[in-house]
Amino acid sequence: MPRKIESLLLDGPAGKLEALLEEPEDGELREACLVCHPHPLFGGTMHNKVVYRIARAMRHAGAVVLRFNFRGVGSSEGEHAHGPGEMEDARCALGVLRQRYPQLPFSMAGFSFGSRIIMKLGCSMQHNTPAPVRLIAAGFPTSRGRFDYLAHCSLPKYFVHSTIDEHGPRRELEAAFEWFEEPKSLQFIEAEDHFFAGALDEFEAAILAIAHPASPR
Questions:
Q1: Is 70 exceeded by the pLDDT of residue 4?
Q2: Prior bond of 183 cis (ω within 30°)
Q3: Which terminus of the chain is more solvent-facing, meaning fewer CB atoms within 10 Å of its CB: N or C?
Q4: Would residue 40 count as lying in a domain?
Q5: Quick one: what percent of the chain has pLDDT higher than 90?
Q6: Residue 216 domain-assigned?
Q7: In this structure, is residue 217 part of a structural domain?
Q8: pLDDT tier at 217, thresholds 50, 70, 90
Q9: Torsion-angle region of residue 186: left (phi > 0), alpha (psi -120 to 50) or beta?
Q10: Global pTM?
């Protein structure tokens, strides 16, 4: 039976948001996952190759995945809002996902700018019932903006990072990671750049292992 793929236009806070909902190829649904893309002003879209790999790994782990374009990207309406507006876009998309699958636990994942969005949104929900079961940040940027809220965020936080990352140098992320609140995990992938060039298969395997620890790497 072919997996379910559905193109959606969500009612976002600044207009319609283009989205793609995908269920796993087979097996029982284990969770719902929202995946956010990199910076809109630098070519980031929901079809970014790292975002695609995150989504595929999560589906293989049994998650139904919702990807979407932030405001002003692709067919999404509105204009880039420098972070706060995009966080509201993500909040809206997450709400739609949870309404569609209210019985499932939920998680969030993101790449680069998208990882900052899901971390901030997720941590703001840490005292909710239910709260996200995990947050996955790929290529978390440390070179701009504040992220001191991570010192007081008790949700499970997973960071997957390239050993060579121009937007989050390894030593800088390692130093910051020391003061992030537990539970937390930091894994480096031997790759050529921020986009995990030359190591996308290894990256996808790392995401799968986080989402479904029983799966082979």
A1: yes
A2: yes
A3: N
A4: yes
A5: 92
A6: no
A7: no
A8: very low
A9: beta
A10: 0.96
DSSP-derived pairing of the beta strands 106-111 and 157-162? unpaired
| pLDDT at residue number 214 | 58
User: What's the mean pLDDT when you consider all of the chain?
Assistant: 95
Cα distance between residue 25 and residue 15, in whole Å: 31
Domain count, the chain: 1
129: CB partners within 8 A, 6+ apart: none
48 is a domain residue: yes
Grouping H, G, I as helix, E, B as strand and the rest as coil, residue 111 is strand
Q: Domain containing 122 — which CATH number?
A: 3.40.50.1820
- Strand ranges (DSSP E) for the chain? 5-12, 15-22, 31-36, 63-68, 106-111, 135-138, 157-162, 184-189
Q: Are 211 and 160 in contact (CB under 8 A)?
A: no
Q: Where do we find the tokens 């479904």? A: 212
User: How many C-beta atoms surround the C-beta of residue 28 within 10 A?
Assistant: 6
Half-sphere exposure of 108 (CA within 13 A, CB side): 30
Model confidence over 162-173: pLDDT tens digits? 999 999 999 999
pLDDT tens figures, 132-162: 999 999 999 998 888 999 999 999 999 999 9
Which domain does 116 fall in, by range? Answer: 5-211
Cα dist. 78→9, 14, 60, 63, 121 in Å? 13, 5, 33, 29, 20
